[in-house]
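Bug #77: duplicate submission created two jobs. Keeping one. Sequence:
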Amino acid sequence: MADPKDYTFNSIGDGEEELLASIKKDTLKYNCFECRYFQSDWKCLAYPNGIPMDILTGRAAHNKVLKGQNGEYVFTPKEKAI
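Kept job's structure:
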């Protein structure tokens, strides 16, 4: 299993604008915001204590189970409304 950096961004406030500016929704292949498992406050079912920064920013893909995550949740696109 791959091992993303341990640093997580799990609080809203300091640095939020910088993080949002670094995440370009239209350029990330595995965008957390577009995943069915994403939750509020920078968390998801795989990372309930905070998604690792490398995954949030696209430096690490979450298309396979990674070391340190919960369960076998990987990026799965949200179902689009028709």
